[in-house]
Amino acid sequence: MINPYPLCFKPVLKQTIWGGRLLGEKLGKPIGNDANYAESWEIVDHGTDQSVVQSGSLAGKTLRELLTEHHHWLMGDAAEREFPLLLKYLDCNRVLSVQVHPSDEYGAKMAVPDLGKTEAWMIVDAKPDSLIYAGLKAGIGEAELRAAVEQGRTEDVLHSFHPKPGDCVFIPAGTVHAIGAGLLVAEIQQSSDTTFRLFDWNRVDEKGNSRQLHIEESIAVTDFDKGPVQPVRIDPTESGWQTLVDCDKFCLRAMQKGSATVGGDGKFHILTVPNGSATIATQSDSTTFSAGQSCLLPASHEEIAVELGQNSMFLEMS
Questions:
Q1: Less packed terminus of the chain by CB within 10 Å, N or C?
Q2: What span, in angstroms and rounded, lies between the C-alpha atoms of 28 and 24?
Q3: What is the extent of the structural domain holding 249?
Q4: Tens-digit pLDDT profile for residues 144-171
């Protein structure tokens, strides 16, 4: 047995102007005194961004090294030679740019090939006036979108809603979207850095320059048949797993009450606790995870039991 325990990794922290302090204050990330940490990449294998094992017999190994040296142990029968998913937390202190991600087919044809990006957001914390922009309003086609972008009023054609903690928002490739200010989000996505920026709210920097936009690429990959995206809400009265997203890229399940099991099925599983706590138990040991902690259960790992603490949430992705 290579390592009998779930794999815990050091977070890869990212700073941008739209970040804040919630990653440290609510999720315990090591951000120090800085106030602009926007993302904590929990599980990642994408170029130089690599998860590194924190402890145990594999301490210091990157996720890419584990894939190379212990592929079947980690991935089972899955054929990927790069880890296909990326788990991150986002502290959105200001509204993000309006974006759209391409499909795998489009990504493969780019100058620097990459996967497309299908993703899902779990709302961990939200200010009352926060907004999610997800999909175009009904009836908006290419002409209407192009005119809105050119006139600086893209918001007028976007579907939006006020999210609540526990909402899940599924964003398939081709969906126009933006995360609003005042949100703490757990995001599962394809392991890709492929993003086209359609609109940046007419913002300029101190020199009067606007950020680079990718209008033609964005319009080319937009799915105009998609329409408005509505959140999937967790049923707070239901015990055990609730499936929120089940697509060809990943399955996302959540638990907000009770206990359940996971693993032992020959597939890897990503686990994280957005809030509260959860105890993970094998046949020989148990570990309690607090808010913001994540781990990776290798495909060869035995089934484990999960017991939730009070007022907690647990996410599982595979």
A1: N
A2: 5
A3: 242-317
A4: 999 999 998 999 999 999 999 999 999 9
Q: Are 87 and 317 in contact (CB under 8 A)?
A: yes
| Judgement on whether residues 86 and 175 belong to the same structural domain of the protein | yes
Q: Locate all alpha helices (DSSP H) within 19-155, ordered by sequence.
A: 22-25, 63-69, 71-75, 104-108, 142-150
φ/ψ (deg, to 5) at 251: -120, 135
**pLDDT tier at 196 (50, 70, 90 boundaries)?**
very high
Give the bridge partners for 190, in sequence order. 85
Instruction: Indicate the residue among 233, 250, 276 that finishes a domain.
Output: 233
Residue where one domain finishes, among candidates 233, 265, 282: 233
The residues annotated with a catalytic role in the active site are 197
CATH number at residue 172: 2.60.120.10
Q: Are residues 255 and 174 in the same domain?
A: no
| pLDDT value of position 56 | 87
Token reading at 92: 């959105």
Structural contact between residues 13 and 28, judged by C-beta atoms closer than 8 angstroms:
no
Annotated binding site: 101, 119, 177
* Token reading at 109: 């044809």
Read off the amino acid at residue 191: S
Tell whether 167 and 280 lie within a shared domain: no
